[in-house]
């Protein structure tokens, strides 16, 4: 079961839970509380990966390597007794929570050290409770919550106590030691506590790049012996890594070097645990609870129908259990994971060009008699751009600029009235009654902007393989239809469609996440992308308002 399969199965359970609400009928009110609880479980799904170890072991460097980013601050000074949680966020930011107030402070990531290090916040005089770092990284979007605990064994005794108190919150935790001085007494004490809590433990020996192969084997054997004293024969797996080499390999997109760093093997183990052991059990448990609720449905036929559907979902979960997971890895090239896509860039270019033309036209129409005469003879603007113009121009300018047009229309309609009995339905629509004006200057401006924007898109796709992190947008379906015939370079159409398909798939996930959190009364958990998903979906299907050439 990979992360995408898990997400789809979770969304399917949410869909079936909504149908159960409908089927409940007269029992709906009685079952509402339990259904809300199940929705909340789906909405709040998270995986707490707690990272522990002595200070200066490279815990934060390891987290940076797993994230494929060096944005988390590293250093040699012990941290204060502050828990730092790294979660998904649309944009990079930090929320600092204090012990004596419910008011959070938002700070820049570069300022984080001022709140969590002993140098800048000695003895935690600021009384910081937690720091929540939000980063647009894909491994976090899929449910990982990485938790960096204070370093063990520093002169700040509270650090060790804070870490030990936090262990029950872990779904799994990673003990980071190093080849310099492997497995200290403080680290063994934490392992001893963890061994009785039945949490999965991953032991990482960092800084393998600093020792020879022979020394690596010697240290690993020493660590195994110390682990046996705590866990017996069922020792946790040991991972030898170089966080520094792993991060550099991800930057370069070097899979061979990533494998040599040991980070890929650690990612695979963490992902396998999260998906195969932890999350498959979660999904199966949700199925069982929903089936228990369905057993209380008043209609036996509906109950049977729902049970059959849930059996299919349960079988699908069973098929995915045991499948090998794949490492979560940030693509070497520009990706969809760390950019918040915008609405259609072609629509936006048309909007900008139309507004600029309209602003100039509105001024000239209100101040120049020749422009007013041309405006009248042209039959005015199309319907869409007439409304745009009216929304921008003050009533005085509308009256001055359009009086000649209204007078011309009056004379044209009077002439039509005289010949009304001879009107031929096959004849062209008179200009005074036409909705779309061929000479509408704003339509002409929009057409030029559309052609230019499509040409730019074609060029960017041909040069960049279809993905550009600087100009990443959903191309709306109407403009996608117009752009595809212009993709004459080999592979360009495929690249554009591949990019669009990936982005729409991601958008659908955000829509389903938002719906699940809404149903669970947990809208405050939604990310910015999830809150914007409904509006973005409409923009994809129909384009942006005033973002098209014809206002017909």
What does this structure look like?
- The longest helix has 32 residues, at 263-294.
- By secondary structure, the protein is α/β, with parallel strands linked by helices.
- Strand 8, helix 8 (213-231) and strand 9 form a beta-alpha-beta unit.
- The protein has helices at residues 3-23, 28-43, 59-67, 113-116, 138-141, 157-166, 185-195, 213-231, 243-252, 255-261, 263-294, 300-320, 345-367, 369-377, 383-392, 395-418, 441-464, 477-483, 492-519, 528-542; strands spanning 47-52, 83-88, 93-98, 105-107, 128-135, 144-148, 172-178, 200-206, 238-240.
- The protein has a nine-stranded mixed sheet with strand order 4-3-5-2-6-1-7-8-9, with helices on both faces.
- Helix 1 crosses helix 19 (492-519) and helix 9 runs antiparallel to helix 10 (255-261).
- It is 55% helix and 9% strand.
- The two termini are 49 Å apart.
């Amino acid at each position: 079961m990979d992360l995408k399969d898990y997400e789809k199965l979770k969304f399917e359970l949410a869909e079936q839970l909504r149908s159960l609400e409908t089927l409940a009928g007269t029992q709906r009110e009685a079952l509402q509380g339990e259904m809300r609880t199940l929705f909340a479980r789906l909405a709040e799904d998270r995986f707490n990966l707690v990272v522990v170890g002595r200070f200066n072991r490279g815990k934060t460097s390891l987290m940076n390597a797993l994230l494929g980013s060096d944005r988390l601050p590293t250093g040699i000074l012990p941290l204060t007794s502050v828990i730092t949680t790294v979660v998904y966020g649309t944009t990079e930011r930090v929320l600092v929570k204090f012990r004596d107030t419910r008011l959070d402070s938002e700070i820049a990531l570069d300022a984080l050290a001022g709140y969590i290090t002993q140098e800048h916040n000695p003895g935690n005089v600021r009384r910081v409770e937690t720091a929540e770092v939000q980063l647009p990284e894909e491994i976090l979007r899929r449910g990982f919550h990485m938790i960096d605990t204070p370093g063990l064994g520093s002169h700040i005794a509270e650090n060790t106590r804070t870490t030990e108190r936090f262990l029950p919150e872990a779904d799994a935790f990673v003990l980071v030691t190093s080849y310099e001085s492997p497995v200290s007494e403080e680290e063994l004490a934490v392992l001893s506590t963890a061994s009785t809590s039945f949490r999965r433990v991953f032991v990482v020996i960092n800084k393998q790049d600093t020792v020879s192969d022979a020394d690596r084997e010697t240290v690993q054997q020493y660590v195994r012996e110390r682990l046996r004293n705590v866990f017996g024969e069922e020792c946790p797996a040991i991972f030898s890594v170089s966080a520094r080499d792993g991060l550099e390999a991800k930057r370069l997109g070097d899979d061979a070097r990533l494998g040599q760093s040991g980070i890929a093997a650690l990612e695979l183990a963490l992902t396998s645990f999260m998906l195969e052991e932890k999350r498959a059990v979660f999904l199966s448990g949700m199925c069982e609870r929903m089936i228990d609720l369905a057993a209380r449905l008043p209609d036996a036929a509906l109950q049977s129908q729902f049970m059959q559907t849930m059996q299919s979902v349960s079988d699908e979960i069973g098929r995915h259990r045991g499948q090998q997971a794949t490492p979560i890895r940030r693509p070497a090239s520009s990706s969809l994971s760390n950019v918040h896509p915008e609405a259609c860039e072609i629509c936006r270019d048309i909007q900008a060009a139309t507004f600029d033309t309209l602003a100039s036209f509105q001024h000239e129409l209100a101040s120049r008699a020749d422009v007013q005469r041309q405006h009248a003879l042209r039959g005015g603007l199309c319907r869409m751009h007439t409304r745009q113009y009216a929304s921008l121009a003050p009533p005085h300018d509308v009256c001055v600029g359009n009086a000649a047009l209204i007078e011309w229309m009056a004379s044209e309609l009077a002439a039509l009235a005289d010949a009304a009995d001879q009107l031929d339905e096959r004849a062209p629509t008179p200009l005074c009654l036409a909705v779309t004006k061929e000479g509408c200057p704003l339509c002409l401006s929009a057409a030029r902007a559309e052609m230019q924007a499509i040409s730019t898109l074609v060029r960017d796709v041909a040069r960049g393989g279809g993905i550009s992190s600087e100009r990443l947008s959903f191309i709306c379906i109407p403009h996608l239809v117009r752009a595809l015939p212009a993709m004459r370079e080999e592979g360009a159409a495929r690249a554009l469609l591949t990019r669009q398909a990936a982005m729409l798939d991601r958008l659908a996930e955000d829509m389903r996440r938002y719906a699940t959190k809404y149903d669970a009364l947990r809208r405050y958990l939604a990310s910015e992308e999830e809150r914007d998903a409904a509006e973005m979906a409409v923009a994809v299907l129909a384009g942006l308002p005033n973002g098209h050439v014809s206002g017909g």
